Each structure stands twice: as structure tokens, then as C-alpha cells.
Amino acid sequence: MRRILITLLLAVASFSWMPAYADAATAVPPGNRNAEQPPVPGASVRRTRGTNSTFERKYQKVRELLATDTKLMAKIKSTARAYGIDPIHIIGALVGEHTYNVDAYDGLQSYYVKAASYAGQSFRFAYDGENVDDFVARPQFDACKGKGDSYSLWTCREDVWEDDFRGKTVGGKSYPDNRFSAVFFQPFYAGQTFGLGQVNPLTALELSDLVSRTSGVAKLDEKDAGGVYKAIMDPDLSLAFVAASIRKSIDDYRSIAGMDISGNPGITATLYNLGNSRKRAAALAAKNRGSSQPVWPEENYYGWLINDKLSDLKSLL
Questions:
Q1: In sequence order, what are the residues at sequence separation of 6 or more whose Cβ sits closer than 8 angstroms to the Cβ of residue 222?
Q2: pLDDT in tens, 102-123
Q3: DSSP secondary-structure letter at 174?
Q4: Which of 226, 200, 225, 207 is nearest to 217 (CA)?
Q5: Are 161 and 266 in contact (CB under 8 A)?
Q6: Which residue, of 21, 80, 81, 156, has the greatest Cβ tally within 10 A?
Q7: What sign has the CA pseudo-torsion 198, 83, 298, 309?
């Protein structure tokens, strides 16, 4: 009997972290899991070299913008409060985007000017002559009709695209082996910038309900591509979508993977860069179900930089 009891106690001890993981979120340790920065994608390297710049130079430029533009920093802090997140997460997202994807402008006013240049433009979200609203009316998307919020609706539609259309021929029409957002939601040339936070139009549609509820922004409609671009180009609106994306990642990892990532800006920055926090949280949860020790989420090159520069970035606050 004693041997049986000892065996049971050892079994419980070997999985001692699991109940906490299942019932209350386990805090992800601060810092990077990788000793060295993961490889930066070739496209980002080529884009930076093509402008005769370096990642360090771009980092210093966006840091300078944040350090000197008091109006922008005030907006970041107030937006972070509204979404219940530490402003360092928004700073991390902006720094990552402007270090690896685009160069920062010299001031917030330049972002307003860029946003104004989109006003009055007529364009639509479509592929090969088919509007996205007509496309998602196909019977393959019927399972998404009952989704009650924008996030569930558009992530469901993304899943259908991946399963039924991506890289396939359907009804005699072939579809690219590419992301839903890249095929239907990029009406401009490749590399087109999307404002201060570089928010993807599809991501904005997914987060529309959360942003409307929290910030009072009118709900977005895929039939009004101009309205979507206004939301992601205008700094007064786009910061709300940046914050909402981070908030959703934190919530997804807590509810799906049982992990609290709110204390690791490198992880939230990684998810901001990669997207699909719901699927990534589910994949992490699956790994942990078969592990006796917690498998932590890891930062990519983008998030690694944020954690590596964290002391410097926190000084901005």
C-alpha cells in the first residue's frame, strides 16, 4: 500500500506544473529563450540594404521618434491603458516594424500626411475580379455564418481559405498558394506600407469589434476598403488596432495555452509580427499536453530584438 502511495505521489510530482497550467495562467519567464538572434528574413535584409541603411540605424531612428515626439508617446500610453496592457508592448511592436519592415518618419505629423494621401482613393478588396464579400458568400464558408464577432468570423474565413482554396483549383479556378490576407487584401503593389503600426487590413477586420467596443471606432466593413485603410493609416485610429492585436494575443495565450505572456514584450512582439496567435497558442498547448515540463513560447528575430533592447526601450517610458 505504501509503495502504491509513493508511486502516486511521484506521478503527481512529475506533473506538478500541469494543474497550475490548466487552471491559472503560468507566467512566461522574461527575456529571450535563444542566446543568439534567430535569422532575419532575406526580404528584410534586402529591403534595408536597398535603402543604404542598417537595422541598427533604423532602430535608432524609430527610437529617436519615440523619444522626441511627446504627442505620440502620450497616445501610446493612453491607448495602452484603454486596452489594459503595458505600453512597452506597443513600443515593441512599433520598433520591430520600423526596424525590419519600414523606415520611421521623422514625426507623427508625417504619418498623418501619409494617411491623408489615401483619402478619396477608390479601391476594393478582391482577387482576379472577384470581390472578397462575394468570395466569402460561397457555400464553403457557410460554417462561419454563425460566428458572433468579427474575430471569430474572419479567423474562420481564414481557416476555410487555408483548407479549401489555398493552392487549389476550385470550380475550374486556381488560387495562389499564399495567405488569405495577401491574396484578397493587398490592392496596392507589394511592399505598400500600412501606417504607423503596419497593420494588415485583414487583421483590422478581425479586430474591428474589439476596437469598436473599446475605442468607439466605427465597425469596419470589407466592402469599404477605403474605410479600412483610413483606420490603419490614421495614427489616431491605428494605435488602437496595434493595442487590440496585442491584447488579443495575450488573451489567446492565456485562454488556449494557459500561459501569461504579458510580462515578455519579446513574445508579444513576435506574435505581432507573425499573427495567428490563436493557432500558435493551440500548437503550444498541444506541445505542453505531452510534456512533463512547460514548453515556453520562443521569440523570433523581431521579438528577440525587443527583449535584447528592453532596458533601452523602457527608458522611453
A1: 125, 132, 133, 205, 228
A2: 888 888 888 888 888 777 677 8
A3: E
A4: 207
A5: no
A6: 80
A7: positive
Q: What is the DSSP track for 53-119? A: --HHHHHHHHHHHHHH-HHHHHHHHHHHHHHTS-HHHHHHHHHHHHHHT-PPPSSHHHHHHHHHTTT
H or E element that contains 314:
helix 310-314
Residue with cell 528577440: 304
> Other C-beta atoms within 10 Å of 315: how many?
9
Query: Which triple of cell numbers denotes residue 50?
Result: 536597398
Residue 291 to residue 269: CA distance in whole angstroms? 26
Exposed, middle or buried by CB within 10 Å (0-12, 13-18, 19+), for 273? buried
What's this model's pTM, rounded to 2 decimal places? Answer: 0.89
CA-CA distances (angstroms) from residue 3 to 7, 10, 12, 15, 16?
6, 11, 14, 19, 20
In one-letter notation, the amino acid at residue 131 is N
Beta bridge partners of 169: 174
